[in-house]
Amino acid sequence: MDPPAKEDCPICFLPMPLTLICCISLPPATITSVPIYDYALANEELAKLSTEQYYECCGKRICRGCIESLFLSNNDEHCPYCKAERKCKTDEDKVEELLKRVEVNDTGSMYVLGTYYFHGELGLHQDQEKAMTLYARAADLGYSQAHFYDRNGGDLKKAKFHFEAAAMAGDEVARCKLGYMEFVSGNMVRALKHCTIAASSGSYTSMHALIKQFENGFVSRESLDSTLAAYNNSCAEMRSKARDAYIHAHV
Predict the structure, then answer these.
(1) What is the spatial distance between Cα 192 and Cα 200, in angstroms, rounded to a whole number?
(2) Is there a domain that residue 15 lies in?
(3) Which of 39, 81, 134, 212 is the most buried (most CB within 10 A)?
(4) pLDDT value at position 1?
């Protein structure tokens, strides 16, 4: 089963990176060594840095590589997509832009505005109930990241439902979490299936898990070779000089 196609950055037209670690230029992974994972262990901060930025003016998500290129060329005062002025915008201006996009069912704006309400940011009063309403609306309209709002609710059955919905929409992080949940439940076959799909999309965490299970005798050499090939191809598609420049600026 092939994973759903990734969303492309509207500027460079490359697939959006899952994490910064997966798109750094390193040698291809092998059976005995996964350089990209070893690198992650020594540079865990790269797994937490944002891979993209949302622009309220046009509702576009731009990869950090393109944003880094604009910064280096001193052209970062305008939106890289619609060229709207950004330098003089206030928090109120940004909220107003988000509200306009929410009105036309822009799911990205719903998610971003929900996050601002959840944390009480951008001059908004903290309102987690309103945040949940926006997350739920975005999730119902197909925005995969919005399903993660319920992951800490304590209801594992409900959490699994949201992870499954996000995974079906192509969210590799959700797919990886499902693999872990199935592993804990003792469902090794389903766990390995989730990990294989996520690894094939470039998830270094899932690829590492599969190699461990290969060493434990639960994954065949043929299956691992096939997944490694897909993993390397996915990582290669997410790499560029601009993304390398952004990564190295934060190492």
Answers:
(1) 12
(2) no
(3) 134
(4) 47
Residue with tokens 């926006």: 134
**Are 214 and 224 a contacting pair, CB within 8 Å?**
yes
pLDDT value at residue 150: 54
Q: Fill in the amino acid letter for 122.
A: L
Q: Report yes or no on 3 lying in a domain.
A: no
- CATH number for the domain spanning 241: value is 1.25.40
Q: What are phi and psi of 208, to 5 degrees?
A: -65, -40
> Does 118 fall in a domain?
yes
Q: Which residues of the chain have pLDDT under 50?
A: 1, 3, 151
Among 6, 140, 16, which residue's Cα sits nearest to residue 67? 16
Model pLDDT, residue 100:
93
Return d(Cα 33, Cα 181) in angstroms, integer: 26
φ, ψ dihedrals at 53, nearest 5° = -135, 140
The pLDDT assigned to 130 comes to 92
In a domain, 110, yes or no: yes
How far is residue 218's CA from residue 216's CA, in Å, rounded to a whole number? 6
- Residue 99, domain extent: 21-145+153-248
